[in-house]
Design a protein that fits this description.
Number of helices: 2
Structural class: alpha+beta
Distance between the termini: 9 Å
Shape: elongated
Mean pLDDT: 76
Low-confidence stretches: 1-7
Number of strands: 3
Radius of gyration: 15 Å
Strand order of the largest sheet: 1-2-3
């Protein structure tokens, strides 16, 4: 019941069921930061209603699996 709002699946904050999925890359520490090498990649799932977002480390599964995790 932790991610359910009003008994429905949806955004953990507002319960809305529409999302946007994007990608963000970041640098690590040490030499990768010095040479601006993007070593970490994440999928970003955001609620289109309230803007609440969660980051998920890129995995071999598709974006639809990540949205299912976000929506509960």
């Amino acid at each position: 019941m932790g991610s359910e709002v009003g008994g429905e699946r949806g955004c953990p904050k507002c319960g809305h069921t529409e999302t946007d999925v994007g990608e963000i890359s970041t640098t690590g520490g040490g030499l990768s930061k010095m040479f601006d090498v993007q070593t970490n990649s994440f999928e970003v799932v955001s609620c289109t209603n309230c803007g609440y977002s969660e980051l998920y480390r890129n995995a071999t599964s598709g974006s639809s699996d990540i949205v299912d995790v976000f929506l509960g």
